[in-house]
Amino acid sequence: MTVTALYPATYRPTKIVSAPASTLEEGVEATVHLVIGADVAGVTGADFDGMREARAHGQAYDPRARARLRALSERLAA
């Protein structure tokens, strides 16, 4: 099993994203690529910006921010 992240809201207009960065078709292509793309087979724990691997927001790499998020998530899920 692999885990990757692709933020799909950039592909369609919503109340939060009024001007999509990409088309719905490009979003579908990126999603399918993550599911069956030979060049991403076995890639896990990665973030993707469309068809290419990218870095997440810097806070995602901050151990203290991650610990706070985990504690909050555990408290909310209890």
Estimated share of beta-strand residues: 5-15%
Structural class: alpha+beta
* Structural Rg: 15 Å
Low-confidence stretches: none
How would you sum up the major sheet?
A: 3 strands, mixed
Order of helices and strands: EHEEH
For the record, the count of structural domains works out to 1
Query: On the 0-100 scale, what is the average pLDDT?
Result: 84
- Helical run tally: 2
Anisotropy-based shape: globular
The level of helicity is 25-40%
Q: Widest sheet: strand order?
A: 1-2-3
- The rounded distance between the terminal residues' Cα atoms is 26 Å
In a nutshell, what does this entry contain?
This protein is α+β, with helices and mostly antiparallel strands. The protein contains 2 helices and 3 strands; from the N terminus they run βαββα.
Can you characterise this structure?
With 78 residues, this protein is an alpha+beta fold. The protein has one domain (4-77). It is 36% helix and 13% strand. The chain has a three-stranded mixed sheet with strand order 1-2-3, covered by helices on one side. The radius of gyration is 15 Å and the shape is globular.
